[in-house]
Every structure is written in C-alpha cells, then in structure tokens.
Design brief:
Oligomer: single chain
CATH architecture of the largest domain: 3-Layer(bba) Sandwich
Number of domains: 2
Radius of gyration: 21 Å
EC number: 1.14.13.-
CATH class of the largest domain: Alpha Beta
Strand order of the largest sheet: 5-4-13-14-15-12-16
Pfam family, one: FAD_binding_3
Largest sheet: 7 strands, mixed
Number of helices: 12
Subcellular location: Cytoplasm
Order of helices and strands: EHEEHHEEEHEEEEEEHHEEEHHHEEHHH
CATH superfamily of the largest domain: FAD/NAD(P)-binding domain
CATH topology of the largest domain: FAD/NAD(P)-binding domain
Catalytic activity: a tetracycline + NADPH + O2 + H(+) = an 11a-hydroxytetracycline + NADP(+) + H2O
Family: Belongs to the aromatic-ring hydroxylase family. TetX subfamily.
Number of strands: 17
Length: 370
C-alpha cells in the first residue's frame, strides 16, 4: 500500500453511467477522492432506459462492494426473471418461471439503480454539464482532460466510462463501434395492468420474446406497470430513410412496422398497434472482438467505452464489475500504474470472451432471413 505521505492520486471518471458510478462509489467508500464528469446537465436530463437483470457474480457483486445491496433488494424484482418465448402465431415455445427464492438475476429499472449510486456519492462528486472532448497523455502518468467549453484539467488517472462513442478511447485505441446489422426500434406501453390488461397478461412479469427470421418483437416488464417494447430488425442502418419514414411521425412508423410483421398474431401486433409512445430507433453497435490496446499510463477504459457489445444482458453487469475491480485495484496496488495494469490484465480477456458470446448470441436470437 502507498505510504501515508504519498499524495492521493487525482482520479477523473468520464461518464456518469453505472460503471463510472460504481468505480466512484467504491473509491469514496474507502476514503479516496474522485471526480465524475458527466455531459448531461442533470440526473434526470433524459430517460435512463429499461430494466436490467443483475447477475449474482457480476452486477450483484458490484452492488455488494458498493454497500448498496439492501437498498437494491428493496427495489429489485425477482419475479422479473420470468421469460416467455413465442413464435409468430403466439404459441408458447418456452416458459421459464423463477423458482421461489431465486434471486440469481433479479430485474431493476436502470434509472432506479443509477439513482442508488448517485445518492450514495458525496455532494459535488458528479460535475454535471461537463462534456469532455478529448484526453491527452502528458507523460509520467499524468493526463489532461479537455472540455467542450475550452477548459482543461490534469489528473493522475482518467477513466473513460463514457460509453460506445467514448471521447477517451481514441487516446488508447483507434477502434470504433461498427453497426451489427440489427436495429431495435423502441416504444412503450404505460399503466399496462389497467390500460392494457391483455398485453400485461401476454408479457407476464418479465421478458417476452417472439421471433422469426430477420425480425422479432421483445417486450420487457419494468416497474409500475410500464412495458418497453423493442421491434428488432435485421436491416440496413438507414432502413427508415430508405422507406421514406420520418421517425418523428409515429403513426407512419407504426403502419410501416405493422406491414413488416403482417401475418403475425394480433396479440403480438398489439405491442406495436397499441403503444402509448412514439418510436425511437436504436441501432446496435459493437467494437471489434477482441478489443485491446497497448497500456498507456494514466488512462484506461471501462464498460461500453472498452467493450460495447450486443445487449444480451451482460453490458451493465460487466461495466459495474469493471468499475468495482478498477477501484479495488487502486485501493490495493502500490501505484496507480500497477493498479491499471492489474485491472486491464483481467478485464480485457474477460470482455473479449463476453463480446464473442454476445455476438454469437445475437446471431441466434435474430437469425438471418432466408
């Protein structure tokens, strides 16, 4: 461990998502200073996405290390582990219902989990509205953050936790995410138990999947009767433009998607026809596999900045584990550089294995149309 006379390292986390906040929380919990820079202006500047299944050995382990497990349990939904797989006629192919007491992968809304981490940090830890544009290694392990307003600040370690389009990654790697050929068009249904009881019954407490060659419908139960729907398509990145669609014209998008799923059971088409929201296109991107880099003192990556992959239930769990393990290494290794090397030696091969599995999983989840 460093001697008491050694100045505490200046650590900057770029990005206020789950992985960056997990890192900051563990550092603060053990008396270390850390600053989180987030480009969004506030915690509620935008919706935080759907529900997450927290795996016992990864996401839940990170939550325990953060000292937040009891608060997590109060919000988590073990019943959300239910999964139904249907064909296009709505015939049930598989139905998994969690056993009593099974909490291996309970669900929690992403926004709720992020709120737990934010509430656990000291006031002022997160600097909102501070968009980072680049990071420059200065030598000797020091790195300089450059901000959109023209300011800059130096740190002993910059942690890129800023997602798929990371502004920190170019300091380590020229790699950029590539479109997978699959897009998810998201919509939602509100207050389903009251307003859409048939859909609520169809989806159940967890995840509904109905798929065919090149397309599928996925619906996830969130808290408070909210269901998020994802229309999955194997399609060109510009599929909506090629179809002459304006994504802001919800009714035109709805009509187009219903035509694409012509012949599917009406109970499944209701996920599109009866949705209460507009449609948001979410093309899926992934970094090359494996994504690695030559170690640069004073800079590292975690979460999607390091290993964005298809969203098959691993991304948030791995990001939180990354952040936790990096923070733990910073607490236990003799120097910042030793800590980063130890962290990267474990994270990089682990993420490569996970990304390979998710790529293969996406091919199985949504096979090519013949």
């Amino acid at each position: 461990m460093p001697s008491h006379s050694t100045p505490a390292p200046r650590v900057a986390v770029v990005g206020g998502g789950l992985g960056g906040l997990a890192c900051a929380r563990v550092l603060q919990r053990h008396g270390r200073s850390v600053t989180v820079f987030e480009s969004e202006v506030s915690a509620d500047a935008r919706p935080q996405g759907g529900t997450l299944d927290m795996h016992a050995g990864t996401g839940q382990a990170a939550i325990r290390a953060a000292g937040l497990y009891e608060r997590f349990q109060a919000l988590a939904r073990p019943e959300g582990q239910e999964m139904r797989l249907l064909d296009h006629t709505a015939a049930v192919l598989e139905h998994h219902h969690p056993a009593e007491g099974d909490e291996s992968r309970p669900e929690i809304d992403r926004g709720q989990l992020r709120g737990l981490y934010l509430d656990s940090l000291a006031p002022g830890t997160v600097r909102w509205g501070r968009a980072v544009t680049a990071v420059t290694p200065l030598g000797g392990g020091t790195s300089r953050l450059h901000f959109a307003d023209g300011d800059s600040e130096d740190f002993d370690l910059v942690v890129g936790a800023d997602g798929a389009w990371s502004r920190v990654r170019p300091a380590l790697s020229p790699a950029a995410p590539v479109y997978t050929g699959v897009t998810f068009t998201e919509t939602a249904l509100d207050d389903c138990d009251t307003r859409h009881p048939r859909i609520a019954e169809l989806v159940g407490d967890g995840l509904l999947m109905a798929k065919g060659p090149g397309k599928g419908l996925f619906a996830q139960r969130n808290s408070n009767g909210h269901i998020r729907v994802y229309v999955a398509l194997r399609a060109p990145h510009d599929w909506h433009a090629a179809a002459g669609l304006d994504l802001d014209d919800a009714e035109a998008v709805r009509a187009h998607l219903l035509r694409l799923f012509d012949g599917w059971d009406e109970s499944l088409l209701a996920l599109i026809r009866d949705s209460d929201r507009g449609f948001t296109d979410r093309p899926l991107y992934a970094l090359p596999v494996p994504h690695t880099w030559r170690h640069v003192p004073g800079i590292t990556l975690l979460g999607d900045a390091a290993h964005v992959m298809p969203p098959l239930g691993l991304g948030a769990n791995l990001a939180m584990l990354d952040g936790t393990e990096l923070a733990t290494a910073l607490l236990t290794e003799p120097t910042v550089d030793d800590a980063v090397r130890a962290y990267e030696s474990v994270m990089l091969p682990r993420s490569a294995d996970a990304a390979k599995a998710c790529g293969e999983g996406l091919a199985t989840l949504l096979p090519q149309a013949s």
